Amino acid sequence: MGDISEHLSTWEVACRCQCGLGSDPDDIASSIVSRFELIRYIVDRAVYINSGLRCPAWNEAQGGVESSAHTRGTALDLAVGGGIARIQFIVADLLARLVELEVIKKREARELFRRILEGIGGLGVANGFIHIDTDEEKPRPSAWTY
Q1: Which range, of 8-12, 96-100, 131-135, averages the lowest pLDDT?
Q2: Smallest Cα–Cα separation from 54: which of 36, 32, 31, 72?
Q3: Residue ranges in 44-135 assigned as alpha helix (H)
Q4: In the CATH scheme, what is the code of domain 1-79?
Q5: Domain ranges (residues) in the chain
Q6: What CA–CA distance (Å, rounded) separates 63 from 40?
Q7: Biggest CA pair distance of the chain
Q8: What is the pTM of this model?
């Protein structure tokens, strides 16, 4: 049980420079907390945070843009493995947005997530194009970047 929400704690989102930003649950926007919880519900497993809140100095040290959402408490970088895990979290984020817009219900999002992932073949992402394939001779689902 987290101190921000059911699955999110201040120690996960606090600025990594130890300045104290993020030690108060109110430092992070409720909108990103809600989105995080929806994504976690949809993927039905633990979700880990790579980066949450950043003070301006830490944001600059990390190469973040001056207007970074991390400095306003409206962004989280989720830790994902390579390949298909990236696609899973993109799909989950899109479904979470549909729940927020009340287009689908929360429980429907989890079922849609499973059904969508069953049909993914190969997906490659590059600058300027996206590769899609249905090649059943190769391990699927699979995703990669060029």
Answers
A1: 131-135
A2: 72
A3: 56-61, 84-100, 106-118
A4: 3.30.1380.10
A5: 1-79, 82-146
A6: 27
A7: 52
A8: 0.90
